[in-house]
Amino acid sequence: MQNVNHNELKKFALLAETWWDLDGDCKPLHDLNPCRGTFIAERAEIAGARILDVGCGGGILSEYLAAGGAKVVGIDANRDLIEVARLHAADSDLDIRYECVTVEDLVTEGTKEQFDIITCMELLEHVPDPELMVEQCARRLSTSGSIFFSTINRTLKAYAMAVFGAEYLLRLLPRGTHDYASFIKPSELARWGRQAGLETLLYRGIQYNPLTRHAAMCKDISVNFITHLKVKN
């Protein structure tokens, strides 16, 4: 497998058993999911679309998209999380194809699949080469398709909230979940997109209140942000 941090795989494998516990270590992912899903649905037609969810984890976003009528392929390099995703989808009566592969290795019948929508949520900051990840995702996109990335901005505010606040102060996430040096500035993501033949259409920040567990879109992209890109015409 390419572009994989094996220490990260081990770290997230520890969360597999409680991935779908709404009050467990992954509760921020559950709380943020409807907000992200709505953003995607407002920017692209989900029903009937072929969607690739890169770094799908235990399938939280994949299930949201499949419930909206999409034909979803979820991929992740973590075998433990793929097994969790398969079991939960079966329990939820959702037809989702899950594969334990990287986006570079996703091949079916000897050809590279093309997708109408590609999502990559909170993965770029966990791989050795995020620029390569953007490039490889772009290669799987249809000429009229959309890509959505979400990640964390490399700012002092993001460190204070996403690392110190979330991991040490409020204990919303296990310590060591994030590495500030791996956070990504929007300008970097936009540059990688341009180099891969994509244009950035929109950035939005995501506000999250851990006390009320409410997430909402905002214009402040200094901490968590999501972006929509398409193939350049």
Could you give a short description of this structure?
The protein has 233 residues and is of the alpha/beta class. The chain has helices at residues 6-13, 27-43, 60-67, 79-91, 130-139, 156-169, 186-195, and strands at residues 50-54, 71-75, 97-99, 115-121, 141-152, 198-209, 214-218, 224-231. It has seven helices and eight strands; from the N terminus they run H-H-E-H-E-H-E-E-H-E-H-H-E-E-E.
Biggest sheet strand order reads 3-2-1-4-5-8-6-7
Strand count: 8
Number of helices: 7
How far from one another are the termini? Answer: 32 Å
Q: Oligomeric state of the chains?
A: single chain
Order of helix and strand elements from N to C terminus: HHEHEHEEHEHHEEE
Helix/strand/pairing category: alpha/beta
Q: Helix proportion of residues, in percent?
A: 25-40%
**Strand portion, in percent?**
15-25%
Query: Any idea of the CATH topology?
Result: Rossmann fold
Structure commentary:
The chain has 233 residues and is an alpha/beta fold. The chain has a single domain, classed as Rossmann fold (3-Layer(aba) Sandwich), CATH 3.40.50.150. It is built from 7 helices and 8 strands. The chain has helices spanning 6-13, 27-43, 60-67, 79-91, 130-139, 156-169, 186-195; strands at 50-54, 71-75, 97-99, 115-121, 141-152, 198-209, 214-218, 224-231. Strand 1, helix 3 and strand 2 form a beta-alpha-beta unit. Helix 5 crosses helix 7. The mean pLDDT is 91.
